[in-house]
Amino acid sequence: MNNEQRKIGVLVMSYGTPESLDQIEAYYTHIRHGRPPTEEQLSDLKARYEAIVGGFFPLRRNTDKQVEALQETLNRDYPDVRYVCYQGLKHAQPFIEDGVEQMVKDGIREAVGVVLAPHFSTMSVGTYTKRAQEAADKLGLSIRFVLQYHLHPKLLQALSERVSAQLDAFVKDGVAKNDVRVIFSAHSLPEKIVEIGDPYPQQLLETARAVAERTGVTNWQFAWQSAGQTAMPWLGPDIQDVLRAIHQEEGVRYVLICPIGFVSDHLEVLYDIDIECKSLAKELGMRLERTESLNTDPLYMETLSDVVHRKAQELGRE
């Protein structure tokens, strides 16, 4: 088969989210490995979604747009290959296995899997790729995976532009750039990942340092957010504890949060930062801003397009 006829499927994987309020219980039950949430847990999660523009479900819509934009970018950048993108979600339909099955039904024989998360962890990206590989093996699909892209130049450029834009807004209001504490954040994971040498914390720090260097930021730190409510300890410090500490111990008045672990607007950004963190900051008398999410930013789409195409070339060399 020559390159002009070559068709490659792209399994775009992400955490998933319910599409409506009445799907929240099933979604939460799936996250809890089949154990239904308590009434209190369910009520809390519903309240969080309802707080975001009256229950608007941004993650699903944003993911749809990202998948569409990635397919357009791939086929624009690499016209000799026909790329077809499919969704595979961890906790909602279409599940990862559904995406693999649909590719095979559509006659796809070669595929690349990529997760909408730049940093690798065995507990996040690793679980996605494991499920996809198992499904592909059963159906005879040849698939390769992008495992991380946390230092891709275009990703760093996109993040740096966002940090610079928000810092410029502070400066325009008369705040000295060095008076703004930049906090890079990401989703916490159980502390046990450190014991197994998981690269997730280190990769996040590498991204944070790279963005800080590109933007000339020296007044920065890292914090974790959105930890799960489980008996096991999760990585810290939690971002709300950090906000209290820098206010009380250092007198910090201006904060910019750059959630580098998230690539689109969803619950952990629109609620955990925009509502909870901003509410705490107001209570503490601090001004808190957040960098815009990547969503379908062309630089992010080009990042994904590049790493997917590179991995597809490996398929061609088999």
TrEMBL record:
One Pfam family from the record: Ferrochelatase
Enzyme class: lyase
Residues given in the record as Fe-coproporphyrin III binding sites: Y15, R32, R48, Y49, Y128
Reactions this protein catalyses: Fe-coproporphyrin III + 2 H(+) = coproporphyrin III + Fe(2+)
Major localization class: cytoplasm
The name this protein goes by in its record: Coproporphyrin III ferrochelatase
rRNA-binding in keyword set: no
Role noted for this protein: Involved in coproporphyrin-dependent heme b biosynthesis. Catalyzes the insertion of ferrous iron into coproporphyrin III to form Fe-coproporphyrin III.
Keywords of this entry: Cytoplasm, Heme biosynthesis, Iron, Lyase, Metal-binding, Porphyrin biosynthesis
Record InterPro entries: Ferrochelatase, Ferrochelatase_AS, Ferrochelatase_C, Ferrochelatase_N
Compartments, as annotated in UniProt: Cytoplasm
Residues the entry annotates as binding Fe(2+): H187, E268
Superkingdom assignment: Bacteria
Assigned protein family: Belongs to the ferrochelatase family.
UniProt keyword Transmembrane helix present: no
Pathway: Porphyrin-containing compound metabolism; protoheme biosynthesis
HAMAP family: Ferrochelatase
EC number(s) reported in the record: 4.99.1.9
